Write a sequence for this structure.
């Protein structure tokens, strides 16, 4: 609909990008490399999950592994923790999650039993965009307000950013998301 990027968030880890992780049980005897994932059961978050499916799928494709190479691919109802628990319980050989998701279950399971087999490349994170119908003046004022949020030195700003669960914003443009467009072509998604 012509939306245009104006700002990206900087996450609590200080990055404006994120990636997916491919996980296995640490004691899985048959999987030592990505190549060993062929013929195995893969549990992913959701077909539209970036870090929990699409980034991992693109990573597999980059290494010559396609969906047809897996015994099955199942989805965990949009929940990262369901993926982790499915791998932990041995219901699935591999899982794909957004980096940082293991902390979600650290009080439920011994996460030291989960191994990150590999990680995808980093992709641009959450974006704030605007309608092309919004005046340039309004866009600039909103963008400047977002970019001036100061987590370190302004307690009011820190309160806002803590509630939003990120620590700041950075400028963004449409071109920042070219890697997502390339990924969508690679995995057969049509974003047009």
């Amino acid at each position: 609909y012509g939306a245009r990027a104006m700002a990206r968030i900087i996450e609590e880890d200080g990055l404006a990008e994120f990636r997916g992780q491919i996980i296995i049980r640490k004691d899985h005897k048959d999987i030592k490399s990505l190549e060993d994932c062929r013929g195995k059961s893969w549990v992913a978050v959701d077909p539209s999950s970036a870090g929990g499916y699409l980034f991992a799928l693109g990573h597999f494709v980059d290494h010559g592994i396609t969906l047809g190479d897996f015994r099955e691919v199942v989805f965990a109802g949009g929940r990262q923790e369901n993926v982790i628990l499915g791998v932990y319980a041995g219901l699935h050989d591999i899982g794909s999650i957004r980096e940082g998701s293991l902390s979600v279950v650290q009080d439920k399971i011994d996460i030291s039993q989960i191994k990150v087999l590999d990680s995808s490349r980093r992709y641009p994170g959450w974006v704030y965009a605007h309608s092309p119908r919004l005046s340039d003046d309004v866009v600039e004022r909103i963008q400047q307000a977002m970019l001036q949020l100061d987590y370190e030195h302004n307690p009011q700003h820190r309160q806002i950013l803590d509630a939003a669960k990120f620590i700041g914003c950075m400028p963004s443009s449409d071109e920042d998301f070219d890697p997502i467009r390339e990924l969508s072509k690679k995995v057969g998604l049509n974003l047009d």
Remarks:
- The chain is about 30% helix and 25% strand.
- Strands lie at 4-11, 17-18, 20-25, 41-44, 72-75, 94-98, 114-119, 123-124, 127-130, 166-171.
- The first helix runs from residue 50 to 62.
